[in-house]
Design brief:
With 201 residues, the chain is α+β, with helices and mostly antiparallel strands. The chain has helices at residues 29-37, 65-70, 79-104, 126-151, 168-174; strands spanning 2-11, 17-26, 44-51, 58-64, 72-76. It has a three-stranded antiparallel beta sheet. A two-stranded antiparallel sheet has the order 3-4.
């Protein structure tokens, strides 16, 4: 794509000089085909009211793809008008160029690299991230299972198994036990019932 700018001037009816600016883009065949394919000629590239620097004047701009392709003419009162129109026409053409770039890559892909401290190294896909997450979940599950097994080992309390055989008390005394099998309270020799939980020893 190329932009053609034509500056012209003519004498006014009451004297003085009037200026005209004509802007037109020239497209390659491929670019013209893209505009026709996506019907992009209807797109408005720039529409604004802008103030002309160093003056109290403002101009209303409406620049579209169709106007630039067919040639768009702007009437200017002075050089400041011409410069402001030219600046905005070039900005509109920059936008038109981006339109063409996007239209030419439909159906493809674009990779945008965001540089940073953590951006160096080999790229990994979503499958690798999913594998790492699965390993972390398995490790967490194993830790929870191990903790649960330890909690199930209860040496004292109502949840422990009780030996109800007739010789249970004598066996505990003979083994030198000096605590209640049920609640862990201290007991004296030959004591048959715990003074804390009142259960048989």
């Amino acid at each position: 794509m190329k932009l053609l700018l034509v500056r012209d001037q003519a004498s006014g009816l009451l004297g003085g000089v009037k200026f005209k600016l004509r802007a037109q883009v020239r497209l390659t065949k491929r670019e013209a085909d893209l505009v026709r394919k996506y019907r992009a000629h209807r797109e408005v590239l720039l529409q604004r009211q802008t103030k002309i620097p160093f003056t109290n004047k403002s101009i209303l701009l409406n620049i579209g793809i169709s106007g630039l392709i067919n040639g768009q003419e702007f009437k200017c009162k002075d050089i400041a008008d011409i410069l402001e129109y030219e600046r905005n026409v070039k900005e509109a053409c920059d936008t038109f160029r981006r339109y063409l770039d996007v239209m030419s890559t439909f159906g493809g892909e674009e990779i945008v690299n965001y540089a940073g401290a953590e951006s160096e190294g080999e790229d990994v896909g979503p499958d690798a991230l999913a594998d790492e997450q699965s390993v972390d979940e398995q490790s967490s599950s194993a830790s929870i299972t191990e903790t649960s097994d330890e909690d199930d080992d209860i040496p004292f309390g109502d949840g422990a198994e009780t030996d109800s055989s007739p010789n249970a008390a004598n066996r505990r005394v003979n083994e030198g036990l000096d605590f209640c099998y049920h609640c862990g309270a201290a007991v004296v020799d030959n004591q048959q019932t715990c003074s804390e939980c009142h259960k048989s020893l």
